[in-house]
């Protein structure tokens, strides 16, 4: 399991997480993080939602969205424009509009 945080730019909400979480590879050494060479194909992102319209915040069911991590051989995330995987951070565009 990996963690991350949300960042909004314009109308797009991004999950910011680690490169090694979406690839299964060590970002500097270029080797698999496990013995099988596993590379994830899908990420399930779960966001805790609260209704703050009342006197006290009420926790609502988590919003979940599945994110395909590759479109063929092309990753669906954004990497650092100059250093790529050597900065162990990615941004993944999310769409929760029909989930909340």
Give a quick precis of the structure.
This protein has 100 residues and is mainly beta. The chain has one helix at 19-23, and strands at residues 5-9, 12-17, 42-51, 58-68, 70-71, 74-75, 90-94.
Low-confidence stretches: none
Number-wise, the strands total 7
Structural class: mainly beta
| Side-by-side strand order of the widest sheet | 1-2-7
Distance between the termini: 23 Å
Largest sheet: 3 strands, antiparallel
Helicity, in percent?
under 10%
Morphology: elongated
Please give the count of helices.
Answer: 1
Beta-strand share of residues = 35-45%
Mean pLDDT level: 88
Radius of gyration: 16 Å
User: SSE order in H/E notation?
Assistant: EEHEEEEE
What's the helix and strand layout?
Elements: E1 5-9, E2 12-17, H1 19-23, E3 42-51, E4 58-68, E5 70-71, E6 74-75, E7 90-94
Antiparallel strand pairs: 1-2, 2-7, 3-4, 5-6
Keywords:
single chain; 100 residues; mainly beta; 3-stranded antiparallel β-sheet; two-stranded antiparallel ribbon; 1 helix; 7 strands; 5% helix; elongated
